[in-house]
Amino acid sequence: MLNYNLLYCLPSSEELPDSDETPVDNQLQHLIPGLLEAILALLWANRGDWYFGVDMGIYANPNEAAIVPDGFLSLGVHRFIDEDLRLSYVLWEEKVLPRLVLEVVSQTYRGEYTKNKEDYRELGILYYIIYNPRRRRQPPLEVYQLIDDEYQLLSGNPVWLAEIGLGIGRERGTYQGITREWLYWYDENGQRFSTPEERISAAEMRAISAERRAEILAERLRLLGINPDDLS
């Protein structure tokens, strides 16, 4: 009897299309998940067991097209496979479902509240997040958790995601020079984690403050008749 591994008969991530060839029609669809990824890269810099994909295809079935959310988070996988990084996220290779998917609604409605939601439910995605910045009569941010095979809307801003160990919420801020409402990660106490730009700015301010304190000290020493250069 011939023995073979079924995985050998399936296409690999290198052979599958790495996107659905549909360009984003709103810059926010790229910037918002990109910001979340950048914050995680700082927050979890010492961890290698996570991956955040942006506009990347998720393949659940080799005979069907990929599902391409604006962003998704997987835990328990290698963040980096090799220097070429991932081309797509293939479930029969990864063997781990994404824990969270994010859709940013643009001017062109793409079934975020209907078809996509059902697709993610059938796939078994634990958290499904929809962000629609143009919504006025209903909350722009909706966070759903899969409970008993149905998506249940979670309340709050930020919303704590216990199975991930992070909260997600919306708040006004500045990213890449753009001041508007963004999505951020939060800790269990509702404190927002800093962005890379904010950390750089804070470090620069600390450096300026330290330099100014040194100048003030030097001035006081000179008033006392002490040359600060002689102390170095």
UniProtKB/TrEMBL annotation:
Keywords: Endonuclease, Hydrolase, Nuclease. InterPro entries: Nuclease_put_TT1808, Restrct_endonuc-II-like, Uma2. It holds the Pfam family Uma2. Gene3D superfamilies: tt1808, chain A. Residues 32-156 form the Putative restriction endonuclease domain. PANTHER family: SLR1095 PROTEIN, SLR1612 PROTEIN. This is Uma2 family endonuclease.
